[in-house]
Amino acid sequence: MASAAEQLAANMNLGVFAKATELKKRIWFTLAALVVYRLGTWIPVPGVDPHVLADIFHRTGGGILGMFDMFAGGALSRMTIFALNIMPYISASIIMQLMTTVIPSLESIKKEGEQGRKKINQYTRYATVAIAAIQAYGIAVGLEGMSGRAGSAVFDPGLFFRFTTVVTLVGGTMFLMWLGEQITARGVGNGTSLIIFAGIVANLPRAVASTLELGRTGALSAAVIIFLLFMAVGIVGLIVFVERAQRRIVVQYPKRQVGNKVYGGEATHLPLKLNTSGVIPPIFASSILLMPMTAAGFIAGQGPEWLSTVTALLGHGQPLYLLLYLALIVFFAFFYTAVVFNPVETADNLKKNGGFIPGIRPGKNTSDYLDYVLTRLTVLGAAYLSGLSILPEILISRFSVPFYFGGTSLLIVVTVTMDTVAQIQSHLLAHQYEGLIKKAKLRGKRS
Predict the structure, then answer these.
(1) FRET pair for 259, CA 20 to 30 Å: which of 51, 242, 356, 417?
(2) DSSP for residue 442
(3) CATH assignment of the domain containing 32
(4) Are 262 and 167 in the same domain?
(5) What single DSSP character describes residue 405?
(6) Same domain membership, residue 225 and residue 179
C-alpha cells in the first residue's frame, strides 16, 4: 500500500512539474519575443539624421506623433524599423470589422466558421500591407521636408530614400504582426496587445523621472507629486473594477426529450460588459483632434492664419478641445459598440437554439430588450472613458505632468495585464484539472 501511494504521489508530482514546465516555456517565449521587439525599436532607418529628428519631435511632441510614439515605445521619434509599430494592423482589423457589418459578402464569409475567419484574417493582412505602405510613404515624404536647427532630417533625399524607407517600415510592421501571432499561439496573452503594452511600459520610467525632475526644480510641489501617485493607484483600481463589471442577463433553455433521456432545462447568462468598446474611442478621438496640431507643428507657423487659430483653440486643456474630445469619445463608444455587438443577431441565435430571456418574448422583443440594456451600459461606459481620458488633458495643461498618469495609456496597461494574468490562471487551472483526472484514473486502476 505504501509503495502504491508513493508511486501515485510521484506520478502526480511529475505531471504537475511537466505542466509547469510547459507554462514556463510559454512565459519565456513571450519575454524573449518582447525583448526582440524592444531591440528593434533601436535599429534606425537608413538615411535619417537622429539629432535633427529629435529636435523636430521636441517641437511637435504634443501632436498625434507624440501619441503614436507613446504606443511605439519611442520607435517613431527615433525613426527605427518599428516606427509604425503594429498600429497599421490594428487599423486594418478595425476597418475589416466595420466592413463585415456593411458589405453582405464579407458578412457571409464571417459566418462560415473557422474557414471564414481565416479568409477575414488574410484580407486583414493585405489591408495591413496597404495601410503601412501609405503611412510609410507619407513619413518618407514628410521627413524629406523636415528641417531643424542643424539642417535637413534626411541626408540624401530622393526616390531611393523613399523606396528604402517604405520597404523598411512595411517590413517592420509585418514582422511585428507575425511576432504578435506567434506570441498568441506559443506564448501567454494576446500578442498584439502585449506589443503595445511593452511600448508604453518602456517609456514609463522616463515619465516618472521627468515628474520627479519637475518636483526637484520646484515646478511641482511635493504635495502635488504625492497626490498624483495616489491618483494613479486610484485610477488603476477604477479601471480594474469597471473592466470586470458585467450585466448578466439570464437565459433559459427549455427541456427536451431525446429517446428516454431529458436534456436542457438549465439556465445560463449572457454577459454584457460595461465598457464594450474598450480603448478604441479615446484613440480615435485623440487621432482626429491632434491632426491640426501636428500639421501646424510641421509648417512652424508658415501656413494660413486660420490653421494657427484652429490650433490655438484645439490646444491641450482648451474648452473647445475638451468639448470636442468628449463628444467624439461618446460617439465612438456608441458606434463601436454597435459594430461589435448586434442585438438582432444575438436574439436570432438564442431563438434558433431554443433559448429565451424570462419574461421577454423571443425575436424582436428580445433584440429590443438587449438594445435597451446595451444602450444604458454604453452610457455608463462612455462616461467612464470620458472621465478617464479628460483627466490627463487637465493634468497636462495645468501641471505639465507626463501623459502616463491616466487616460489611454493606463487603460491599455491595466487591461492587458488583467488579460494576461487571467490566461496564466486558466493554464494553471487546466493543469490542476488534468492532475485530478490522472489521480482518479490511478485510483480506478488500483481498485
Answers:
(1) 356
(2) H
(3) 1.10.3370.10
(4) no
(5) G
(6) no
Long-range contacts of 298-305 (CB under 8 A, 24+ apart): 298/60, 298/142, 298/145, 298/146, 300/59
C-alpha cell at 286: 485623440
**83 touches 169 (CB < 8 A):** yes
Q: Which helix (H) or strand (E) holds 361?
A: none
Q: Locate cell 509585418: which residue? A: 174
Residue 28 lies in a domain: yes
User: Quick check: 126 and 96 in contact, CB under 8 A?
Assistant: no
Cell matching residue 373: 440594456
The residues that bridge with 263 in the sheet, in sequence order, are 256
Residues 359 and 239 in one domain: yes
What whole-number distance in Å separates Cα of residue 40 and Cα of residue 140?
19
Cell of 35: 525583448
Residues 296 and 235 in one domain: yes
Give yes or no for a contact between 50 and 78, defined as CB atoms under 8 angstroms apart: yes
Q: What is the pLDDT of residues 410-446, one digit of tens each?
A: 888 888 888 888 888 887 777 666 666 665 665 655 5
Nearest to 211 by CA among 66, 413, 407, 403: 403
**Could you tell me if 251 and 236 are in contact, meaning their C-beta atoms sit under 8 angstroms apart?**
no
* 21, three cell numbers: 514546465
Q: Taking the complete model, does pTM exceed 0.85, yes or no?
A: no
Q: How far is residue 396's CA from residue 50's CA, in Å, rounded to a whole number?
A: 27
In the three-class reduction of DSSP (H, G, I as helix; E, B as strand; rest coil), residue 315 is classed as coil
Residue 258 dihedral angles phi and psi, to the nearest 5°: -120, 105
